[in-house]
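> run fold Cation-translocating P-type ATPase
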Amino acid sequence: MKRRKCDVRMKYHEMEAREVEDTLNTNRHEGMSEEDAQKRLEQFGYNELVEGEKQSALLLFFSQFKDFMTLILLVATLISGLLGEYIDAIAIIAIVLINGVLGFFQERKAEKSLSALKELSTPHVTVLRDGEWKKIPSKEVVVGDLLKFSSGDRIGADIRLIECNNLEIEESALTGESLPVQKTVAAIKQDNPGIGDMENMGFMGTIVTKGSGVGVVIGTGMKTAMGQIADMIQSAETMTTPLQRRLEQLGKILIVVALFLTVLVVGIGVLQGQELYTMFLTGVSLAVAAIPEGLPAIVTVALSLGVQRMIKQKAIVRKLPAVETLGCASVICSDKTGTLTQNKMTVTHLWSGGNTWQVDGIGYTPKGDFYRSEKRVDPKKEKTLQQLLMFGMLCNHAEIHKKNKEFIIDGDPTEGALLVAGMKAGYSRPSLLNQYEILEEFPFDSTRKMMSIVLKDASGRRFVVCKGAPDVLAQNCESILWDNRKQAMTQEMHKSVNEAIHGLASQALRTIAIGYKELTNEGRITSEKDAENRLTFIGLQGMIDPPRTEVRAAVRECKEAGIKTVMITGDHVTTAQAIAKQLGILNKSTKVMEGKALATMSTEELEDVVDDVSVFARVSPEHKLKIVKALQNRGHIVAMTGDGINDAPAIKAADIGIAMGITGTDVAKEASSLILLDDNFATIKSAIKEGRNIYDNIRKFVRYLLASNVGEILVMLFAMILALPLPLVPIQILWVNLVTDGLPAMALGLDRPEGNVMKREPRNPKEGIFSRGLGWKVISRGFLIGGVTLLAFMLTYKGDPNELAYAQTVAFATLVLAQLIHVFDCRSEKSVFARNPFGNMYLVWAVISSVLLMLVVLYWPPLQQIFHTVPIAGRDWLMIVGLSAVPTFLLGFTYLARKTK
Ligand code: ATP
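> ok
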């Protein structure tokens, strides 16, 4: 392991915390002023690591022409120009250029939307500005800012720590050492320490694994330890999806097939007596038209447009492959609190020593009365109730503010609810803090399911106060407050506590228990293990957390789409059960499993029963990984939500890892492939729907483009076999490639989902692009499009060379129209009649403009010369329209006939 020396910051770790604040002109109570921060930002720049060179626009433009066939076409055109075919040469070059420009814009758009995505998922940090803690994008942090962070956060800049609560930071990105480092605030007087030895510093990009802290920023951007080692900057995630890779492979095969067929066309043409030079140019144009070189770019555009639509629905895709996997999801494992429920907690019931109180008032407004046996009581006269409320406020990390006449909780809503309950009884945390000093704090963690503090009162007595999941906390109690005094916990009392826990939980209340112990010896409590034992049980606070209104419908919609919803929660089994029933997650055929049972099972044992379970309660984050594995082994494609640092392994292992945008830690977000900006379950459903739609749209235009290409090649091939003249001239082939294959294909990418998108089973991830009849559709429609075009040509061309240009024009018009009608067929997996043709107005306009462009080519004399076209007579239009409708409608009617049978 290489230890890096970090001399730039030497003076900061040697200084006392106060000195650092003075040197950097900041202070721990007010932080920086917004004004100073702005000035520093302008002077020193953003807090970001400079990225490597991007591909320049010019390079991207030229890369559009590096395709082998395009190069040959350009050379061939050059030759034809030298031979005197100026008009042809210029026209072909113009078309190639326009094609290049279109390709350039498509790729640019794809690139831009991908970098916009990156921007959206950049982390935010909490800084103190003008005395107020604020969340800002981490790139706006300046030297002198005070940074607050807790377990799961990534440190946003280099800092000198000034406050640590059991803080541990994992610095392996810098030191290679995977064990977290315990941090302190004391100055270090060691000569030239390595990064790993600077225990009073935090470094940009490292991860807080435990506790919380505050630090003064001493370096940002490239002036951080991370900035100094540019090669360690994480490279971007892979951004191609399995489908893109499969299409790329398919593209290679198609190139070979298209080239083979082109050579065949040229070979047969030459044998049949066509001129070699004409056949060469025809062959190259055909190859350019038939090779779907633009397919990957259109796929990227379709993916990124879909991703933008998802952003509007509050889902950010971090890894593009997730878009595809979303359409395959068969199970969604969702957290309860905040995702299925609103995470707006209000304490409604309290229990202590056999007594139950009720509190009224909703939300965070601290107004409400207390009742016992339906009679109003003064909470300050009920002794144990007082203890319960006061300790709930002290063992607490949340803050409450009034903003625009509304009360807002800063911190964990569970803790916010405890603050509000205390305030309803007339207590306030600041005045309690005047009576009690907090000596230590052991933050909440969802494996322990508890939080504790060590308190000192005015007379110097010290207490541990502990709050947590009641069943867990009760196990650590040996006594209980009953009849206003501490008593050994009898069997009877234990039973009574359990009944109270169940009573509250069965009303779907989230319950928190509070316990305490007085410390008699002098020793300092340094770990939660020492704190959380031999406690005295004080009582319970039960809070409502209403389900999100939209979730019930979303769960039902998922069920119809063949997707099972599983609730995974740290909450009590009865609470979980009650809410799962309300939401339609739990029904007669599914079961609830507890974390305890899960812990003793092997993954194989779990596999046998996992399909029947729809609620996992009292689980720890570590169990989530086991659940993901078991479901995956059963052949499921699993979407798993999470927010904490311990959720990261399960999020990573899931097929679609989902992190919470609001409550999620940086670590969870970085492990995820999808972030829910609103933490809402219904957003997952919307994202799945969009994922299915994107995949459908990709299938639509793959089908359209390939069927068109098959048609183009076949018309030429059949003509050569039948010893006919060329039915299309090269420039016409190129025009078809540019216009018909361009806009309508893009418009298909913007199509809305077909009505049944959430009424069918999830897609099998192993299925190929041509499955579910797509291959047959491409071949059959391609044959028909080629066939009718040739037929139109043969019906018009009777052997008179003077009629050739006319017949070619008719063939050209038939090919174009047949493709433009077929594009409507591609919108549905069933038939052209299954959807309203005006349902996608982009497509309607794309088709109208393509038709208009075709008419211009046919009827505008300057273009007639270039495209070798002749005006078509009215009577022939009837035949053209009739023939071009055949490929689509023939098969449409066959479908209808089969359906009515
Ligand atoms: P999810 O449903 O998202 O898994 P959860 O809130 O149900 O989340 P945890 O956050 O792990 O699960 O909480 C588990 C239990 O720990 C809760 O049922 C509650 O009793 C207790 N608890 C929750 N928050 C706190 C806290 N801040 N301090 C002490 N105990 C808490």
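The chain is about 45% helix and 20% strand.
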